[in-house]
């Protein structure tokens, strides 16, 4: 390696270190993670709801179950920080590797890492509290690079943490399944990746296995009469992509912005800085010849879903409300993350245009300018003191708890945030969600019945609903009933599913080795 090349590598490494620090710095303070949809306590309760078998849909499986299990031996909030740190590092490294794989130079690599870690979609998801979805978004370029370069094992390793939540499982599984090709290709295949015809099949099988922690509870809820996992048409409208200043909805999506909640967007997006993002996307198209077909397919899927929510809202709302499981796509904007690998590869293709990487320098300027206030916006995610009163330990006897007057959200620094009682105790979860004055999610059936029974003073009805305790917002005990402890089987099933999730990748590696051994 020449001195010039060594300096370039050092410069890119230093730039990536700066990026990772800018993203992770807000999480460095002590406390628990609490902002909007993010609430990670140090010791979350090991409940049926944590594994998706509670009163609400399994939207956070296996994430919450894994954190609850980890909280038995270490502070779960610090495990979440570790996952964020590992995801950011892997995301930056994967973006650089993808750019280099398609022939991009160091400037394009720096731009690719910046776009991966600080694109509007992932920053808006962080500000909405979707921290594990942000990790999945960071990992997509790494999964794409590993799949395209024949490093199947690395692709599988990236798919696992991406699958902490259902949406992440879909994103990581799709990118992995599309890019891990039959027999591999490129330098990775030549460097030790002998042709393994079953890799593509095993990748799709792994993607399916990683979905079991939320598919099984969803199927159980449907069979138990709790619904088929559909959402309301009102929720599709409430979570529709949002147009930003000077861009319109289409331009906003092409710039990777447009989350439904304007409060979860950096201030620069309202000032029109999305124009720099749109210009960056158009610039990436100049390097389109470097973008592999699987990445175009992933990007197409990622854009079609939010575009459908915008262009055909009636049909989209009908599908969300009618098709079982379609509630996964009601928040359509998050799927634009699927376009990130294609954009990163397009940045690498700019180096092929010559002109001493002037196009790549322009891309780096654009991606930095559009992200100028993103690190400052992420300061909103600074940890807070543990909000759970000590009384929680006194009533942790395995019986379900009704929090009188609970709505599912509590204010944290003036921001509506997930109720800490739902993470600290086996509560009867309310689940009611109101957006701009419109109820998009009705309260859970058991909570409505329990709330009605409590208002009527009917402790026997509460006991029949499995409610053993009634407490107020401050943790004061209002009543006890004769209800027994909650059934153990949902937690056992959840632990088993979480273990299977963790073992899915090793099982794929074993199957791959046996296949290769059998062919040799």
Secondary-structure map:
Blueprint: H1 3-24, E1 33-35, E2 38-40, H2 63-70, H3 76-101, H4 106-117, H5 120-128, H6 131-148, H7 152-162, H8 166-179, H9 186-190, H10 199-209, H11 212-223, H12 233-238, H13 248-254, H14 267-270, H15 274-284, H16 293-311, H17 313-322, H18 340-349, H19 358-370, H20 374-377, H21 391-394, E3 400-403, E4 409-412, E5 415-418, H22 421-424, E6 433-435, E7 438-441, H23 445-455, H24 459-464, E8 467-471, E9 477-480, H25 489-519
Parallel strand pairs: 3-8
Antiparallel strand pairs: 1-2, 4-5, 6-7, 8-9
Structural summary, described in words:
With 520 residues, this protein is mainly alpha-helical. It folds into two domains: 287 residues, no CATH class; 82 residues, no CATH class. Helix content is 55%, strand content 7%. The protein contains 25 helices and nine strands. The strands form four sheets. Strands 3-8-9 form a three-stranded mixed β-sheet. Helix 2 packs across helix 3, helix 6 runs antiparallel to helix 7 and helix 16 crosses helix 17. The longest helix has 31 residues. The chain is globular, with a radius of gyration of 23 Å. 54% of the residues are buried. About 3% of the residues have low confidence.
């Amino acid at each position: 390696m020449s001195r010039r090349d060594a300096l370039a590598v050092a410069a890119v490494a230093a730039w990536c270190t700066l990026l990772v620090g800018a993203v992770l710095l807000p999480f460095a303070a002590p406390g628990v993670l609490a902002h909007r949809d993010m609430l990670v306590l140090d010791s979350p309760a090991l409940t049926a709801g944590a594994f998706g078998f509670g009163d609400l849909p399994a939207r956070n499986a296996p994430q919450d179950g894994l954190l609850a299990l980890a909280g038995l031996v270490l502070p779960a909030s610090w495990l979440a920080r570790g996952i964020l740190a590992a995801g950011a590092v892997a995301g930056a490294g994967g973006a650089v590797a993808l750019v280099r794989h398609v022939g991009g130079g160091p400037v394009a690599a720096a731009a690719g890492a910046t776009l991966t870690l600080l694109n509007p979609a992932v920053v808006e998801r962080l500000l909405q509290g979707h921290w594990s979805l942000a990790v999945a978004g960071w990992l997509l370029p790494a999964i794409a690079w590993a799949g395209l370069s024949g490093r199947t094992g690395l692709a599988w390793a990236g798919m696992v943490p991406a699958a902490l939540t259902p949406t992440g499982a879909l994103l990581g599984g799709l990118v992995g399944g599309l890019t891990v090709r039959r027999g591999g290709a490129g330098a990775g295949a030549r460097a030790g990746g002998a042709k393994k015809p079953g890799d593509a099949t095993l990748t799709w099988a792994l993607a399916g296995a990683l979905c079991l922690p939320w598919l099984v509870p969803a199927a159980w809820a449907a069979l138990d009469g709790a619904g088929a996992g559909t959402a309301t048409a009102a929720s599709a409208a409430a979570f529709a992509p949002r147009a930003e200043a000077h861009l319109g909805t289409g331009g906003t999506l092409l710039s990777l912005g447009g989350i439904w909640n304007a409060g979860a967007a950096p201030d620069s997006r309202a000032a029109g800085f999305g124009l720099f993002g749109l210009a960056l996307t158009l610039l990436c198209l100049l390097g389109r010849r470097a973008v592999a077909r699987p990445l175009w397919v992933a990007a197409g899927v990622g854009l079609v879903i939010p575009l459908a929510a915008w262009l055909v809202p009636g049909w989209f709302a009908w599908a969300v409300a009618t098709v079982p499981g379609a509630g996964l796509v009601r928040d359509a904007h998050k799927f634009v993350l699927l376009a990130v690998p294609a954009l990163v590869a397009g940045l690498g293709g700019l180096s092929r245009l010559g002109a001493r990487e002037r196009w790549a320098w322009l891309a780096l300027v654009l991606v930095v300018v559009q992200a100028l206030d993103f690190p400052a916006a992420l300061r909103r995610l600074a940890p807070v003191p543990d909000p759970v009163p000590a009384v929680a330990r006194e009533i942790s006897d395995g019986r379900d708890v009704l929090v009188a007057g609970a709505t599912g959200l509590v204010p944290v620094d003036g921001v509506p945030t997930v109720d800490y009682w739902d993470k600290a105790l086996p509560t009867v979860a309310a689940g009611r969600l109101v957006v701009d004055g419109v109820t998009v999610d009705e309260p859970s059936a058991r909570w409505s019945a329990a709330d009605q029974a409590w208002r009527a003073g009917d402790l026997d009805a509460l006991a029949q609903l499995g409610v053993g305790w009634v407490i107020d917002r401050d943790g004061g005990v209002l009543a006890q009933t004769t209800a027994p402890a909650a059934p153990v089987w949902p937690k056992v099933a959840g632990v088993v599913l979480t273990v299977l999730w963790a073992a899915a990748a090793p099982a794929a590696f074993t199957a791959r080795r046996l296949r290769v051994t059998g062919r040799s």
